[in-house]
Amino acid sequence: MRKPLSILLVMYEQGDKIGKLLSLVSMAPIFLVVSIVTTIVTRREIHSITILIGILLSTILNFILKNLIQQPRPGENERVGEYGMPSDHTQLSFFFASYMALCIIFRRMFVVSHQWFCVIVLYFCASLVALSRVYLLYHDIPQVIVGALVGSVFAIFWFFITFYVFKPFLFPLVLNHWISKYFYLKDNTDVNCVLMKEYTKVN
Fold first, then answer.
1. How far apart are CA 119 and CA 124, in angstroms?
2. For 177, which DSSP code?
3. How far does CA 190 lie from the centroid of its chain?
């Protein structure tokens, strides 16, 4: 019996245009990981690497929780043999949304007038992913709620680990290594509104 790669398998009812749209939304976490890897390759930011590591650790945590709780997915679907508590897509989406929200608010990644707009957009997108998982019957409401809570709490933990442990103690060691210098790794987390300053410098 052949089995598809489940992370890429999203099913919806034929003719359901909303389901088709939400199936694309449901794939957002995969596109997110690809975009972060692309950012690492092009920008060479050590902070982007720690975000990717956080996502990987969040995924491992989700796997552990699923196998400890062992709650099945709702109804009958293509992934009925897999556990559903907590929702992995929702957990990843809220991890990223919460982590970036903390960076935006406390690290001033954007100008103040744009901060709350960016935070609202982040949580709106994460909520859409959660909605898509319920609508497509891959999870029930408690599973996505727990996924959102676990992702958000882990994001808070990872934010403080990154900026109060890694940044003062680990980042300098890593950036001073010859491999980091060879690949031009850098740390711009101390630069407020880095995108605006880069734009201003170029123009």
1. 9
2. S
3. 22
What are the structure tokens assigned to 173, written together?
């060691």
C-alpha to C-alpha distance for 131 and 110, rounded to whole angstroms:
28
Residues 6 or more apart from 155 whose CB is under 8 A from it?
A: 54, 94, 95, 96, 97, 98, 99, 102
Q: For 1-60, write each residue's pLDDT tens digit.
A: 444 445 556 776 677 677 778 778 888 888 888 999 998 898 888 889 999 999 999 999
> For residue 138, which amino acid is it?
Y
- Residue 103: C-alpha distances to residues 86, 98, 141, 158, 179 (Å): 25, 9, 28, 11, 27
Range list of H helices, 44-168: 46-69, 88-106, 112-135, 141-161
- Count Cα atoms within 13 angstroms, Cβ side, for 74: 14
